[in-house]
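Database export, one record per block. Field names are fixed; values are copied verbatim from the stored entry.
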Amino acid sequence: TLFFCNAWLMHEFYVSITEIRYNTGTERFEISMRIFPDDLDRALMERAGIHTQLATELEHIKADSLLMLYLLEDFSLKVNGKDLELKYLGKEPESDAIWCYLESSQIAAPEKLTVRSELLTEYFPDQVNIIQVYHGKWNKGLMLDRNQISGSLHLGQ
């Protein structure tokens, strides 16, 4: 969660950024998510009843497995209408965020990608999940939120 200060105004907003890149060499989608740890911690507390304290020295022993389950439940990809299996690769703390990494099963020549991201929307009504998809020489974006949890892009060259 970030705070922006104006002389008389303090505004809190909720946002995650997800980059999805299609790797033609491995024929897999590589997914990187940048999420604020306090927001993730609150969501995991609500779901599992455990204060995970993500990316701190006090991180709970089950934090990584709870995070994996959460991401795989609330984020998915479909290619040409077919669900892609996603694998959790891990997380990496950054100064004010956590990078989470996923990878899809193999899929040759994807034409249409549908992204579903309900990350944090259950707990934060103003949550916005920005999705940036890179394929070949172009990139396209989606903005998903509580009212629009999925969107589709055509990946044709």
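Remark 1: Residues 37-48 form the longest helix (12 residues).
Remark 2: The chain has a mean pLDDT of 90.
End of record.
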